[in-house]
Input
Amino acid sequence: MSENPTATTHATGRRGRSVVLVVYVVVVAIAGITGV
Output
């Protein structure tokens, strides 16, 4: 993976950011439920 992470993020645009946000919320929710 020699590609620039910033370039990849810029390419995905808003959709990529939304996916990351959803994943983050899900992880936080699971952590809260399991009590980690």
In short: Residues 5-34 form the longest helix (30 residues). The CA atoms of residues 11 and 27 lie 24 Å apart.
